[in-house]
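quick one, 203 residues, struct below
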Amino acid sequence: MTRRSLLLALWASRRAATSQVIDFESGGLKYKTLTRNGLTIMYAHLPAQVREYSIIQVAVSNGSSVPWVVRTEDFVFEKPDGTRIKPSRPRSVVNELVEKAGKSDVIKLVATYEIGLYGLSRLQSTNGYEIRRQNAFAELTSAKLKAAAAASAIAFVDVKLKPGESTDGAIFFANQGKPLGYGKLLVRAAGELFEFPSEPIAP
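---
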């Protein structure tokens, strides 16, 4: 997707009278985006499963005139039978990856995340993964510490976005290492309910 196409998709999402979900592709990932009260949320399923987790990549941009708080716990995945899966807290995910995941798991996670992220680099995230990664790596020499820092930088963290600010990160759902599949992603933010239909990733 070109820069112009992405900007047009974001503009259309913000202007849509019905606040409808808009689909687009970037970096080989299929994204869904929706804007309510000036807050734009977009997400895509990451094809890699790491240990027990299914992972989605989220980008949030505040185009309103007021600050909005976005938290990991605001995201819930609802299956067709009504079962809801809450995301794991970032700290617990990072701790597990550091203690139990192999080097290849972390490399796979970082590589998959960055492929998607840099396809969206035109979003110019003001305090997302790239900034966190640079800060975390600034003074580290240990390979294990760098792996921990990488996992920590990737995880979506609770944030208060001022007008014009944006962020990104990965949200982890403990789902026995299986894709989330059909259902819908629900996000309560900006005083609204964002509802995204979800389909399995094509093989």
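The first helix runs from residue 3 to 15.
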